[in-house]
Protein: Thiamine biosynthesis protein ThiC
Amino acid sequence: MKISQDIRREHGGAMDAVAAEAEAGMAQKSKEFAEAGNRVYLPIAD
Structure:
């Protein structure tokens, strides 16, 4: 527990930036998925 708290204290700001970047990437992928029809299985292209 103490190690985790120390890491958060020392690198908390950097971790927040990484989390925000990951969140933006997931939102972009979600948008791409919706534009593709929200289907997990797509038809096979010839």
Remarks:
- The two ends are 54 Å apart (CA to CA).
- The chain has a mean pLDDT of 85.
- Helices lie at 2-35.
- DSSP finds one helix and no strands in the chain.
